[in-house]
Amino acid sequence: MASRIAFYSLPISELPLFLIEVFKHKYKFEDKYCQTIIEKHFIPHLNNLKEDLWSIIEFPYVDKMYRDTYYHYYASKSKNYDRDTIRLSFFLKETDLERFRGEGDIADLRDSYAGFIIIRPTFPKIIGRSAIAPKALRNNDFLCCTSPIAATVNNIKMKVRAFPHASQDSQAIVCAETTIWSLFEYFGNKYVDYGPILPSQINKILQQYSYKRQVPSEGLTAEQMTYAVRELGFGAMIYSKAKHSNEFHTVLSTFIESGIPIIGVLKNQYYTHAINIIGRETDNREKIAGELRFEDGEGDLKIADYNKIQRKYVFIDDNYPPYQIASLEYPCLYYKDQRWHDCQLTHIIVPLYRKIYLDPIKARRNFLTVLKEIDFFYKNDEAKILKIFLASSRSYKEYIALSPDLDITVKESILAIGMPRFIWVAEISTTEDFIHNRISGLLIQDATEPVDYSDKTYLTDIPVFFGGFKTDLFTYLDGKLEFIHNFASNLEAYKSNLH
Known about the structure:
Elements (H helix, E strand, L loop, with lengths): L5 E6 L3 H13 L3 H17 L6 E8 L2 H9 L12 E7 L14 H7 E7 L7 E6 L9 E3 L2 E7 L2 E7 L12 H16 L8 H8 L15 H10 L5 E4 L7 H10 L4 E6 L4 E10 L3 H7 L3 E2 L5 E4 L6 E5 L7 E4 L16 E7 L9 H14 L1 H4 L5 E9 H10 L5 H8 L6 E8 L1 H5 L2 E2 L1 E6 L17 E6 L2 E6 L2 E5 L6 E2 L7
């Protein structure tokens, strides 16, 4: 039977009282209980947003994620749960309902659109699926992975660049399921190769791995989450701090700089928890340059690894509003409960394209070998800053094609190289270039070739097929090593992985 949908337009400062009234009248809750729910579970999300945002409220709303858990779990319970939700949509400026019917206003509305939050009837944990643009936050001094997420507001199509988020309901879904869901909601909205998934699909996949029931959920181990990521189409990799203690943070940073969101597993004596790590704080490059530690290489080669810099990262944590900022050393200091404060990051799970076979530890080793073997890298006695990341060859070639600083002959030579779908890139900067977000040279390596340098490996066996520094470059193509003296003075650094 059809129902009438109601729409309201309000400044976000009025949302708490509005929702309290809805809860009282629709769900027949007492006033004090409604206030407690709003203060504990909604106000923290509201405080994360700019205070001058405007909201459009829509209810009843059919939300795909909640309907999935409703039919998979809540509908079978003795207690009666509503199957509809409330959707709160956010705009950067005042927005009246009438504007959605004027064709001339639509472009401005879409530009002002800042995302949505679903309020689900799983009391007291009411925050459901959400997609909030970083531009809507009070603090957005960071770079992170985002994907274009489609929605409608008052029957008009909108799109927001955000990282998906949902809070756990502690029954059908807990941190592990929401973390996997969030990851695949991101990939499914960004790339045609993947599709968004629903919590029931995650449970179905894990039934093949587990001998016990999946709902109510008791959480997942790191191995179970890795299994789910693999079964959903990725070449999953798992790194443990215990096994990779020397490279753990460097590997994590390398994947974040590659624009790949990862799952982090946190543990202490009280808790085990899963989060998504999706970005990092914005660089203060002048400050970083003054704190860099240069390692001695062979001869006069001195290198500082950008991915070893201590910085804060961006977390999607289903216990808190999206885009929490914290260090890797103390990732839970933003928790009010001090029992969380000594949680440590013990594992990271990385969703990689299946044909990326070369991991960042081996890729870094290969790059360093080339730097030490090719004379125009080490004969120049300037200290060098090395930044390593993955990139799609399509995006990287576009960056090369549009670079105004590359000699046209060099540019066309790079563009003519038949590259795999993904490549490892090492940007090389002098300190002065680094401060101005520019690079003095680069190396490109085949991400599908897992050759690892050792004493028995020849330089020509390593899958680095292009390199250049200042006025010199080399190519290694079709088994032939060739040197050319015509590169460039410097280039703007690649910036398509994080936004």
